[in-house]
Amino acid sequence: MSKDTFSRREFLGVGAAVAGASLVGNPLVAAPIPHAAWQPPKGAPSDRVRFGMIGIGMQGSALLGQSIRLDGVECAAACDLYDGRHVLAREIVRPDLPVTRRYRELLDDKNIDCIVAAVPDHWHRQIVVDAVSAGKDIYCEKPMSHTPADGAAMLDAAKKSGRIVQIGSQRVSSQVCAKAKELIAQGMIGDLTLVEGWLGRNDPNGAWQYPPPPDLSPANLDWDTWQGTVPKRPFNPLVFARWRAWKEYGTGVAGDLLVHLVSGMLFMTGMNQVPRQAMAMGGIRRWNDGRNMPDVHAVLYYYGDLPVYMRLNLGTETPETYRFQGSKGILEVSGRTIAFSPQSGLDESPSYYAYSFPRALRDQYFKQWHAENDSRLAKGSMRESFSFTGPDFDDIKPHLWNFFDAVRTRRPVVEDATFGHHAALACHMANESYFTKAAVSA
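-> structure tokens emitted (442 positions)
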């Protein structure tokens, strides 16, 4: 396999051997937990869920801080390859929190019920497979996988072990997305004809130009282990902090941003499948800082026969937005707002093509048209646009709680390994198409 592209064999039937019929358009295995009641009641100490945290970087420290604020949830230990994050974990949780560089110590600890992992993409497969094989449930940050083959192996391990795997694309736990899903399912927009999604940033932080820790060195970071199985390179603090920009470790804007758009789209439309085709274009248009992943990435998918157009941009700010176009109107979802613009789909006036008729035929056509349609137009109700604005809702907390509740009750999660695999495959297809400059089929 070329280091610049994924093998086509990874796409052809990649999920069929392990996912079976899950590649067809089935609904999600579980509905979101009711949003008004996501917070659990206080339980006895024996009901507490004790988790181990692997990866305490930007996202991991946020997940750690959110998780320990949930009733009945306790962090038992934390792991990171950078010693400075051991200090951070203890600052977040408690001064005597057990910390280590070796995540297998958490997997071997019988007092730890589950794992929350927020590590670079190229480590997802190993940690998830090791966790479920050790009998641990795991919450893994998005995207689920670094390559299609990684995702297939992770899904296979999850199914064989019977352990719970929740992927961290929180749109499936969003109040706004849940309302949009309800409206689409009710047939408000009619026949779905096209889906669009977009998201853009316009600042160095948004383009992952994060400042590395000032004290970072091979003395306090296990650099060789952090690199995993990819070709080794000399110690580079910028690569450590900005790994998303390199395909050896991350999946670019596809794995960071596109996966949110795809996950939200799949959830709101009720689909749970892999696109049958992807065609992408883009480039490094602004952040020419040594990265090898594009900072502009536009992708056209076919989900069955449904065209879906997604675009990402790290050079222009645009809010995360979905636009569902249907025969009865347009439903737009952006931030906390859902807006619907209805359309009748019927002629509101005679065809202007009739002006190409001779006068006698044109007059005859107009007379007949008005006779057949004027009463309908007179009785028609006024179509009104409307919008919903939701509360300032943090969808990370209910998404985490759904996982911890599933660990305790063994109920299905809202974003299992099958869903995560399907969403990640769409991102891998987008990257493959970008690098090969050709359409990619599943």
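Residues 1-45 have pLDDT under 50 and may be disordered.
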